[in-house]
Amino acid sequence: MTSNQQTSAEQGIQSISRGIAINIGLAVVKGVGGIVGNSYALIADAVESTADIVTSLVAYWGLKVASRNPDERHPYGHGKAEPLTALFLSFCLTAAAVLIGYQSIENVIQPHENPKPFTLGILALVVVVKELLFRYQRRIGQAIGSTTVQADAVHQRSDAFTSIAAFIGISIAIIGGEGYESADDYAALFASAFIIYNAYAIFRPALAEIMDEAPPSTLADQVRDIALTVAGVTGIDKCLVRKMGSYYFVDLHVLVPAQLTVREGHTIAHEVKDAIRQRMPQVTDVLVHIEPH
């Protein structure tokens, strides 16, 4: 792993660590507020924040594993730990959504007292904090190309939206008064549906990475363009790119004049590899195959 990739891993781990600390505080505030304020929507929100803590710890572990250098048993590195972690996060989100939805339906069938007004202040604070955390983690995740960090960011925004749903439900219950108690529970039910949607948003790219789905064609185009700038390269036959965690591996077939010696072809292959890795730090290795043309 290069120094740039090591720095990226450290940034990802740091962003998730901060998310864990913030979620611990929010889970306590929402849990206590929901119990004292008689709001199941807020309690459900606390449950999701607790799930956030667990899944963020798993994401932290995934990044730590993915940042390890290649070894004898894992010659291509440990990058697959990232999408595996993201898949686990999506399953945890789905499980939390089902739990919240089930309890919400039970509460609709058996109405309870209206929630207390102060719970709205708690939710407003949560929404602001969660949105800021989402934007921070998304920026880091996109900058370092980490599936895990971006998945954790989506997790934070899903929590923000469940808090918004809870805010609306509690507001309706408080303003409507008697007969509107279930608005709080319908809000939690809506939140569970949104959580499932976000679980899919995490699941899809993680599965694509596990299956070695080709990244956006612009990446392969950039590799081709760089290779064609190397003296002696007359064309590109194949260019295959696959993602491993926050970095990429490239398999490249380049065309060179048929009259070149083996040594000359070997030199060109190294120049192509060096040029790509120098201009594309997210690429950790390039396997160049020389094709006589």
Explain this structure to me?
The chain starts with a helix and ends with a strand. The chain is mainly alpha-helical and 293 residues long. The chain has a three-stranded mixed sheet, with helices on one face. Helix 3 packs parallel to helix 5. It folds into two domains: 208 residues, Up-down Bundle (Alpha-lytic protease prodomain-like); 76 residues, Cation efflux protein, cytoplasmic domain (Alpha-Beta Plaits), CATH 3.30.70.1350. Strand 1 and strand 2 form a beta hairpin. Helix content is 70%, strand content 10%. It is elongated and about 90 Å long.
For the record, give the distance between the C-alpha atoms at the N and C termini, rounded to a whole number: 34 Å
The count of β-strands is: 3
- Class by helix and strand content? mainly alpha
Mean pLDDT: 80
The CATH class of the largest domain is Mainly Alpha
The global form is: elongated
In N-to-C order, the SSE pattern is HHHHHHHEEHE
- Quote the CATH topology of the largest domain: Alpha-lytic protease prodomain-like
In CATH, the homologous superfamily of the largest domain goes by the name: Cation efflux protein transmembrane domain
What are the segments in which pLDDT stays under 50 over at least 5 consecutive residues? Answer: none
Strand order of the largest sheet: 1-2-3
Quaternary structure annotation:
single chain
Named CATH architecture of the largest domain: Up-down Bundle
Proportion in β-strands: 5-15%
Largest pleated sheet: 3 strands, mixed
Number of helix segments? 8
